Amino acid sequence: MRQEPCAPCCLTRFSGRIGEGLEGVGGGATFLESLRALVMSVVILAMHGRLAQAGPDEMISGMKENFSPSRPPVLVQYEVVYRLLGLRLVRVARAQATGAEGEWSSEGRKSAAFFVEASLDTLERPGEEARKHVAIHDRMVVALSNPDLETYIFVRRARQWFNPLVGQSRVVDHVKVYDMRSGELHYLFEDYVSGATNTALDGTADMARQGREVAILMKLMSQVYRSGTQEISFANSPAIYADMDGTARRFRARTSFERSPVALKGKKPRVLRVELRTEKDGGRRPGRLVIWVMSLTDVSLALGDERLCAEARVAKDWCVVPLAFDYDLAVGSLYGSLTDVRVMDELPRTR
Questions:
Q1: Would you call the peptide bond into 8 cis, given omega within 30 degrees of 0 as the criterion?
Q2: Which residue segment(s) compose the domain that 127 sits in?
Q3: What is the C-alpha separation between 229 and 335, in angstroms, rounded?
Q4: Domain count of the fold of the chain
């Protein structure tokens, strides 16, 4: 079976202002504003202390220990290739993601949650990273409320080596934490190469709004997919915010229906194509991502997998499976295709 991955977007009108009143802290700030700023600082320092003590990999393991699945996790795996001018030139990596429903324990409270863990790994053997032109080992975990899908906490761990034929070698080793358990977005960036720490993210309020309403994207894709005809254009798409190069960038979406680029049991079914593009933004690097998705129910029926069908029957309406993705680089793109989807007995161990 050949298939490929996807990526969701959050399309809605956002209301309310998050973090208002903090800009004036210091001069004529009210007591409550100063108190909020103090609490935010304490939370950020606590996050920094946990990372300094345990390290990012232990933090990810700790997040997994705080989650108790109530249903078996579903695993999707992808082959990732580098493409130029539409040609598949070389297989560069494998990616996988697992999602499970269960209970999230945090700060003495237990809540219904949806837990996602994803990874992207290039294909070199352990210890060869520094000798390869490109080596990437990235991890991402996120705990979301269930069924609303509001973000509790999101952690991304990046470990990357770049050794170009021309120019200087570069090592990337950092962690990003987006913590919304208090109701506001607290951001932490730690760079283990330079030792730098940053708690300020441009566009924090926009990222917080997306974190609160990430379910809108999933539900929107599900609604458009189930309608079979309804489509969205760049002109009527609400803003979708995502962290790109350390800044909250604004994307727009366009959807259409077409044949899957990936075959399921020898057939290419009709799927929903979602294209995300950054808005023009002062000459900064443009971003583009295309994903092809099907509902979990239709994927399970197409594959004839009994365990997957059983999970699809009790899954939320917004559950969709990415079949393929195409992410633009400065030159060429990374193209992912689904190679496996199945129900697991337990969450996989972190590498």
A1: no
A2: 54-343
A3: 26
A4: 1
DSSP assignment of 328-351 equals: E-SSSEEEEEEEEEEE-SSPPPP-
CA 244 to chain centre: 12
Is 251 among the domain residues? yes
Full-model pTM: 0.74
Q: Please name which of 5, 4, 14, 11 lies closest in space to residue 218, comparing C-alpha atoms.
A: 11
Q: Does a structural domain hold residue 28? A: no
Size (the chain), residues: 351
The DSSP output letter for 286 is P
Condensed to tens digits (0 to 9), the pLDDT of residues 149-207 reads 788 888 888 888 888 777 788 888 998 888 888 777 788 888 989 988 888 766 666 66
In sequence order, which ranges of the chain are alpha helices (DSSP H)?
31-54, 56-65, 204-212, 214-227, 296-303, 306-314
Within 13 Å of residue 137, how many CA atoms lie on the same side as its CB? 16
Looking only at the bridges linking them, the beta strands covering 333-343 and 320-328 are: antiparallel
Residue 272 makes CB contacts below 8 A (sequence gap 6+) with: 221, 224, 225, 255, 256, 257, 292, 293, 294, 320
Please confirm whether the linkage preceding 238 is cis (ω < 30° from 0): no
Instruction: Tell me the pLDDT tens digit for each residue of 105-119.
Output: 887 888 899 999 999
Say if CB 237 and CB 259 are below 8 A apart: no
* C-alpha–C-alpha distance, residues 158 and 60, integer Å: 12
Considering just the CA atoms, what is the radius of gyration of the chain in Å?
21
For 192-280, list the strands marked E by DSSP.
197-198, 240-244, 247-259, 270-278
Q: Does residue 119 sit within a domain?
A: yes
3 state SS of 174: strand
Do 338 and 323 form a contact (C-beta atoms < 8 A)?
Answer: yes
11 in a structural domain? no
Closest alpha carbon to 60 in 111, 118, 103, 9: 118
For the record, the structure tokens of 228 come out as: 């079979």
